[in-house]
Amino acid sequence: MSKLSGNNSPPGSPRENPDQNSESNLLPKDDSALESVVRRLQDSMSVGKRHTFWETQPVGQFKDVGNTSLPEGPIEAPVPLSEVKQEPYNLPSAYEWTTCDMDSEEICNEVYSLLKNNYVEDEENMFRFNYSKEFLRWALRPPGYYRSWHIGVRAKTSKKLVAFITGIPARIRVRDEIVKMAEINFLCVHKKLRSKRLAPVMIKEVTRRVHLEDIWQAAYTAGVILPTPITTSQYWHRSLNPKKLIDVGFSRLGARMTMSRTIKLYKLSDSPATPGFRKMELRDVPAVTRLLRNYQHQFAVAPDFDENDVEHWLLPTESVVDSYVVDTPETHEITDFCSFYTLPSTILGNPNHSILKAAYSYYNVSTKTPLLQLMNDALIVAKQKDFDVFNALDVMHNDTFLKELKFGPGDGQLHYYLYNYRLRQALRPSEVSLVLL
């Protein structure tokens, strides 16, 4: 969650933080190497400000930053599956575990409501993510998913769903190693239960269930600094409906700018400029897979997608994900593609608007069409679909088009983490090609 603004502090997050005192405002915008932030963090830490939960976990620790003698790769070796704890962790006595079957309309509604009312908000409590039920089903049911990794917590007496955390299986390449991982997401605790310390137990429980499938590494992102980010990326925003964005407080009218000049500044062409630019179809999956796999080789951390993954994650699904290819008119060769997913936010406390419709840049590959032109076409089709704003992180090659296409830096940063996998040095965002939903 991020807004167009002049400051660069991370957004607030209503997700219960396993480390209540984590330092979330220390990362300088231009310090991707993390060394100076870690020194400041260590200097500022009193005994009461330690990451009591994360210091017990196999993750990169702040004290080890810059120590190039440590080996890259798994921090702890796998144990025999018979030694993995077989019973769930104990919850406070008023609560019980539940497995959330996202095929069930009733349970999907419960998960949707919990997240809609309690998930990530911006710092000023003006906007809150509003993942649709269709989006949640798409995000949580990729090829080979485990239903047991969709974990809920219910109040025993009312049976109300009060907390949620998920994992999905993924193959992620880290440098030259393809590693089976879980992508952990949607950690959400009901606002009234933030003091119950449920989050650490939920993280341990999803870890236990992942281990039972003989998977020992994970990837996740957060808006706060925990031990220890492998990179920190910046959110950028491109206004598509500037009047609405200003009306709801997402962005501000620039100095010496009128509304009419602002609308003119962000005006886009009526139709894409690239010949052969069209919506992706099922028949394009093999070509898109080849393009994506070739492109991903240049990054230090990237997903290892096969055709089944591409079909699931990139084939257009209404109000969930949009993908476009460039189908060369003469040869019908697929040379480029771009994609974005739909993640609206609830607008809190505004009498005129209730939903902010946001597109998020996903995976884009340019080989023949310049990336700048390809992304401008993506902005045009997003505008045609009535999106209010187009968001992008400065990962992959995104920083080459952001300023040119009139994106502005937001006030949100996103920190990337690997669990039980060490990188000797933090990466630049441009070395990462991984988008977690």
How would you characterize this protein structure?
- There is one protein chain.
- By secondary structure, this protein is an alpha+beta fold.
- The chain has 2 domains: 35-228, Aminopeptidase (3-Layer(aba) Sandwich), CATH 3.40.630; 233-431, Aminopeptidase (3-Layer(aba) Sandwich), CATH 3.40.630.170.
- The chain is built from 9 helices and 16 strands.
- It has helices spanning 35-44, 105-118, 133-140, 198-211, 242-247, 259-265, 285-296, 307-314, 371-384, and strands at 95-99, 127-129, 150-155, 161-174, 177-189, 217-222, 231-239, 277-279, 301-303, 321-327, 334-342, 345-347, 355-356, 358-361, 389-393, 408-419.
- The strands form 2 sheets. Strands 1, 3, 4, 5, 6, 7, 8, 9, 10, 11, 14, 15 and 16 form a 13-stranded mixed sheet that branches.
- β4 (161-174) and β5 (177-189) form a beta hairpin.
- The chain is globular, with a radius of gyration of 22 Å.
- The chain starts with 34 loop residues before the first helix and ends in an 18-residue tail after the last strand.
At CATH level 2, the architecture of the largest domain is 3-Layer(aba) Sandwich
- How far from one another are the termini? 12 Å
Number of strands: 16
The SS-based structural class is alpha+beta
Taken together, the total number of domains comes to: 2
Strand content: 15-25%
Shape: globular
Order of helix and strand elements from N to C terminus: HEHEHEEEHEEHHEHEHEEEEEHEE
Arithmetic mean pLDDT: 90
Give the class-level CATH name of the largest domain.
Alpha Beta
Domain Glycylpeptide N-tetradecanoyltransferase N-terminal: 74-232
EC number: 2.3.1.97
Catalytic activity: N-terminal glycyl-[protein] + tetradecanoyl-CoA = N-tetradecanoylglycyl-[protein] + CoA + H(+)
Biased composition (Polar residues): 1-10
